[in-house]
Amino acid sequence: MANKKLYDDDEPNLLNVKLNDNSNDNKSISLISLTSELLAEICENLSPEDLYILSTVCKKFREFLWSTSRYTQQIWRNSRLKFLCQLRNPFDKEILSEQQYIWLNFLGNSCQFCGIEIKERSEHVIWEFKVLSCHECLENKTSRKRDLLLKKYPMELLSCLPSAANIIKAKFFFTFEIEEQSYYLTDEVNEKLAEYTALKGIDEKDLWLKNKKNETNKFKQCINEMVEEKRNEFFLDIISKNFT
């Protein structure tokens, strides 16, 4: 997708548009020089895929279109509602931005870690970790709860971090085993452990743990609602096909 052009070779370059004034002199104006307000107006009629392609053009566009500001979130939200109206984002932007949600649900086609192509997106999205990953990278990037506890990671820390169960682990060639355990993103655990240990005093640590636990519970609730909604849509689709 990253190789897709923003415009065709036989179309005018949108980044360098010629304007005619009253003196019949040609003036050149670049989209890169436009203000954020004018750029937002241009983005109003772009699909999520077009917004993503535009964000790859230059640093300014990327900073603007991947911002988590309310302004930019509204641009992506409007695009989703207009072109992908079937996608309902149940997450607050503090938990999962519009860009992340659209990427995981619609635009993503490769592992975020190694870049390998992923054909069945729904089988590789791990919502608890907000990632699109191949099985091999997921295995390398996660740690089992019991292993973390053996390494003396605080139980109170793990209890307030997102975890995923039933991660498929490769056992043999073309053979997979589903392990009924909790898994955590190793980098996230280490990052949060550093934050936690840097806090001073029991009260400060207790408040941090409480806030993290509330965030995780809210995130899990949104995931459960989304999964339930998708499950209902799946069964309704089956009923519709078989009884109409």
From TrEMBL:
Q: Which SUPFAM superfamilies match?
A: F-box domain
Q: Sorted alphabetically, which InterPro entries does this protein's record hold?
A: F-box-like_dom_sf, F-box_dom
SMART domains the UniProt entry points to: FBOX
Matches recorded under Pfam families = F-box (PF00646)
List, alphabetically, the PROSITE patterns matched: FBOX
Residue stretches making up the F-box domain: 28-79
This chain's protein is named F-box domain-containing protein
